[in-house]
UniProtKB/TrEMBL annotation:
This is Endoglucanase. It comes from Buddleja alternifolia. It comes from the Eukaryota. Residues 15-466 form the Glycoside hydrolase family domain. Its EC number is 3.2.1.4. The active site is at H393, D444, E453. GO terms for biological process: cellulose catabolic process. Belongs to the glycosyl hydrolase 9 (cellulase E) family. It catalyses: Endohydrolysis of (1->4)-beta-D-glucosidic linkages in cellulose, lichenin and cereal beta-D-glucans.
Length: 473
């Protein structure tokens, strides 16, 4: 099977260096009071009164991208994928980076515990996106509305609740041997609010979350996703029974080649397939069939492939921030490859078959493209390689740091930095941007946010990929 054209660089990539930087990126996205061991020194404390207007403590967590709003839906997904990266590939990280990855998970879960501290309520967002997006200011200077938005019995949000349950359950596995008491707290919290009050959060909170993180796909996949992680974390039969009972109702076989903060279908199928491939639960066989179909749908050269590839070999799906699809789908390719390897399986695709080695090569090809094996010879990870994006769409990176410019920069005063042709003064090491278009061209320019903005959910699955390739080059 032929892969799209490759643009090899002379030197093999330093995957461990890229791994270190991909984890470091999360420290640049931190909100709240920064700890003494904070390594991204140009960032300072921010948003220290989040939640105060609602009488709760919602400090901490992550800014999801280049703005200053804390969106709970993508933050929870980021935490789930960081946890899955540690669970499946932590052994490949080396002690130092494994510890850093676990700290990145805990920064997310500490916040999610605050967001779910009141029974029957989940705080799902802090910050008014319209006022925030009307400004170009450092998080340390924020004076925009910090409204806290919640879901409850009167305003359901099964999607974000399901993803939050998944994040807490997945993280409980990460901490099971490292911090048993914390692990139990995470799992107990995940169990407490799963599958209550069905409905999409973007119906309840439309003006706050749309069009930014509007749930286009529906909430059904998150209910299965949350149950799948609760089953994996708790091994309680009721979650398996829930999955079996709701598989058809919640459309587990829909959009099998979609995976990201809004759509969990491919992830559900790959995650549950491990049970089948390891010979533990044949009754989940339909999920493995769906996972096989997912693999065939993304392979280049297959007549019914549903994924486009750029001339340079990058996966491409319509919509903004393409790299989120590249890293998430590649993560699933690699995870499934490992599950297949341990069970001596291959995936039948029409007149050919996909071996575990083939899936690994395709995933590695995507990682190598990100790191510089592409027509522009550009790394799309900031701070990695000789050439990388200099003008990323990111407020804190593009404005002078508090250390060099202690005077406040007001909402509209930041516009001149946004429009400046100069490189960003603060290098957000490890940030992976939205990436090039279908023709492999890339405008290194802040206003082109779909191409130049980094996000936490681009990096989270990349952590697992880089961990694996750092020890299996």
């Amino acid at each position: 099977m032929r892969f799209p054209s490759s643009h090899r660089l002379a030197n093999r990539h330093d995957y461990h260096d890229a791994l270190r930087k991909s984890i470091l990126f999360f420290e640049g996205q931190r909100s709240g009071r920064l700890p003494p061991d904070q390594r991204v020194r140009w960032r300072k404390d921010s948003a220290l009164r989040d939640g105060a207007s609602s009488g709760v403590d919602l400090t901490g967590g992550y800014y999801d991208a280049g703005d200053n709003v804390k969106f709970g839906f993508p933050m929870a997904f980021t935490t789930t994928l960081l946890s899955w990266s540690v669970i499946d590939f932590g052994r490949s990280m080396g002690g130092g980076e494994l510890a850093n990855a676990v700290r990145a998970v805990k920064w997310g879960t500490d916040y999610l515990l605050k967001a779910t501290a009141h029974d029957g309520v989940v705080y799902v967002q802090v910050g008014d996106p319209l006022s925030d997006h009307n400004c170009w200011e450092r998080p340390e200077d924020m004076d925009t509305l910090r409204t806290a938005y919640k879901i409850d019995a009167n305003n359901p949000g099964s999607d974000v609740a399901g993803e939050t349950a998944a994040a807490l359950a997945a993280a409980s596995i990460v901490f099971r041997s490292r911090n048993p008491a914390y692990s139990r707290l995470l799992l107990d919290r995940a169990i407490n609010f799963a599958d209550r009050h069905r409905g999409a959060y973007s119906s309840s909170l439309r003006y706050a979350v749309c069009p930014f993180y509007c749930d286009v796909n529906g909430y059904q996949d998150e209910l299965l996703w949350g149950a799948a992680w609760l089953h994996k974390a708790s091994r309680k039969r009721k979650y398996r029974e829930y999955i079996m009972k709701n598989e058809v109702i919640l459309r587990a076989g829909d959009t099998i080649n979609e995976f990201g903060w809004d759509n969990k279908h491919a992830g559900i199928n790959v995650l549950l397939s491990k049970e089948v491939l390891m010979g533990k639960d044949e009754e989940l066989k339909s999920f493995q069939i769906n996972a096989d179909d997912f693999i065939c749908s993304v392979l280049p050269g297959i007549s019914y492939s549903q994924i486009q590839y750029s001339p340079g070999g990058l996966m491409f799906k319509a919509g903004g921030s393409n790299m989120q699809h590249v890293t998430s789908l590649s993560f699933l390719l690699l995870a499934y490859s490992n599950y297949l390897s341990h069970s001596n399986h291959v995936v039948p695709c029409a007149k050919t078959s996909a071996s575990p080695a083939l899936l690994k090569r395709l995933a590695k090809r995507q990682v190598d493209y990100i790191l510089g094996d592409n027509p522009l010879r550009m790394s799309y990870m900031v701070g990695y390689g000789a050439r990388y994006p200099q003008r990323i769409h990111h407020r804190a990176s593009s404005l002078p740091s508090v250390a060099t410019h202690p005077t406040r920069i007001a909402c509209k005063a930041g516009s001149r930095y946004f429009l400046s042709p100069n490189p960003n003064p603060n290098v957000l090491v490890g940030a992976v941007v939205g990436g090039p278009n279908i023709s492999d061209s890339f405008p290194d320019s802040r206003p082109f946010f779909q191409e130049s903005e980094p996000t936490t959910y681009i990096n989270a699955p990349l952590v697992g990929l880089l961990a694996y390739f750092s020890s299996h080059p």
